[in-house]
Amino acid sequence: MSILDYADEDALGRVQSVDTAMVVVRVDDVDALRALQVNRLVALQSSRAGHKLIGVIQKITRTAVEDAKVGDIDQPDAVHPEVNLVRVALIGTLLDQDGSRANVFRRTLETVPEIDACCFALEGEKLTRFMGVISSVTGAGQRLSLGAYTLDPNAEAFVNGNRLFQRHAIVVGSTGSGKSWTTARLLEQIAELGSANAVVFDMHGEYRSMAGDGFAHFKVAGPGDVEAGRGLDEGVLHLPYWLLSYEALVSMFVDRSDQNAPNQSMVISRAIVEAKTQFLEAGGHKDVLANFTIDSPVPFSIDAVIAELDRLNSEMVQGARSEKQGDFYGKLSRLIQRLEGKRSDRRMGFLFPAAGLADSYAWLDRVVTDLLAGRATRGGKGGVKIIDFSEVPSDVLPLIVGMVARLAFSIQQWSPQTTRHPVALFCDEAHLYIPQEPTSGAAENAIATFERIAKEGRKYGVGLVVISQRPAEVNRTVVSQCNNLVAMRLTNGDDQAVVRRLLPDSLGGFGDLLPVLDTGEALVVGDAILLPTRIRIAKPTNEPLSGTIDFWDRWAEATDGAVLAKAVESWRRQTLVK
């Protein structure tokens, strides 16, 4: 039996015009018109028996007779004064029967309403039944709960977990709108799965609070960690320079404005290949030696590279009559200075770890297992890996985050298709390292990495979840590849425009909701959700450490001046003093 069994006399109006997925309904009963609300659901008769078309009210127009002018009726574009209109965007079809299943909702429009077809309000008990269909429509293996529908708080809102990560997602919202809350809600459900595999790029240490067997926490080594010699056993992650691609190395060490930049790039490439060759020969890795390239993740000695650059920079060669300066004499000084400067910068200690920490052939095997293996492979613990980048200098942040993303993509790319275990990358504060307008070679390198993942990741089992408070500042190519949108409150016009471009044409009116959404409430649209609508995100078990400080209350309390002295000392040491 159909859950939407209406009689014709229950109709609130009849279809006046149809345009693809947009319908205009004429409502003659003024009382019925007053009861309608924008963004509520309606059901319309279909030309097929056993089908009901579901739509969302986008606009309600009433023109009172006494307000009309006589000349209005003669104007072709004017609304007739006696006609009250409701504009409805069609979003799907409810089938009374689909094979052996009863009451099935589909995000398809196989038909459109006929002129004069009845339109019915979807409310009360019928709304409750319909939302129940929506909540139970996906199989148990795909269900990922976000919270409850705003339309009906008793109906749980699910998204399809497969489509959410296969086709990438973007979570946006102004500061304090609930982005971190939403992200934590997603992560907690992922962590419960037996073979969960996700990596979170945590820029501010917000997700340190995520607890349980399903989570593993790592921190990119800061100056204090480097000084203490902490490593993977203590959750401290070093990301050595030899993991960088050639383009990333050049962007970090070569000044592109230098007139000798082409020579410097060529010479450093030769020096790196020679240093990698020496490492492989010393370790007896003949099979790798025959096929490796400059981008192969093979350790090499930075000291050997600097020594070779020093030799070329001061080389004298035999001329026809006497010695003369070599081809690169004095042309590599700035390159050597940049290399030495980066290596001596304590903030960059994670790039240049002490001997024995991250310079062995086997080290990469271990770090890949720690960061990219699923929960089952890791002994049932740590399917969601949270990497804290809070102590990474901002000028190299895009390069370092891009390095980890490239590591994940490369491992998936070089794994046999039948054995690939999918991984999702959660890019928190994505505008910091996937910017629309790159200002450095480091940013360009990161953008290239994430653009490739956005375009090709689905083929290799790499999903992206882009999280940002400024979607207008995130690379547009990456954003355009995100086919699922979770939009929380946005007040900036440029950011709203980005979200509107992601919405289907028939749902463009949803963009008007962005500035008025409540904290923790989201507009969810995309391939992963059956009913595009407003959802109130459920509270995560462990809230992220991103709560806004209550200024007025804290100002009313007594303060401890010693905390300022600790802050100064932390600033000096470039590491947090506890």
Strand content: 15-25%
Corresponding CATH architecture of the domain at 8-135: Beta Barrel
pLDDT < 50 runs, ≥5 residues: 67-74
What's the CATH class of the domain at 8-135, please? Mainly Beta
Query: What's the mean pLDDT score?
Result: 88
Q: How much helix is in the residues?
A: 25-40%
Which strand order does the major sheet show?
Answer: 9-8-21-20-19-10-18-17-11-16-12-13
Structural class: alpha/beta
> Could you tell me the number of beta strands?
21
Task: Compute the number of helices.
Answer: 17
CATH topology of the domain at 8-135: Elongation Factor Tu (Ef-tu), domain 3
CA-based shape? elongated
Tell me the Rg in angstroms: 30 Å
What is the first-to-last residue Cα distance?
A: 66 Å
Sheet with most strands: 12 strands, mixed
Task: Describe the secondary structure blueprint for this structure.
Elements: E1 13-19, E2 22-26, H1 30-35, E3 41-45, E4 51-61, E5 85-98, E6 101-106, E7 118-121, H2 124-135, E8 143-149, E9 156-160, H3 161-166, E10 169-172, H4 179-191, E11 198-202, E12 215-220, H5 223-228, E13 236-237, H6 246-253, H7 261-283, H8 286-289, H9 302-313, E14 316-318, E15 323-325, H10 333-344, H11 363-372, E16 384-388, H12 397-413, E17 423-427, H13 441-460, E18 462-468, H14 476-480, E19 484-487, H15 493-502, E20 521-526, E21 533-537, H16 551-555, H17 562-573
Parallel strand pairs: 10-18, 10-19, 11-16, 11-17, 12-13, 12-16, 17-18
Antiparallel strand pairs: 1-2, 1-7, 2-5, 3-4, 3-7, 4-5, 5-6, 8-9, 8-21, 14-15, 19-20, 20-21
Helix pairs in contact: 7-9, 9-10, 12-13
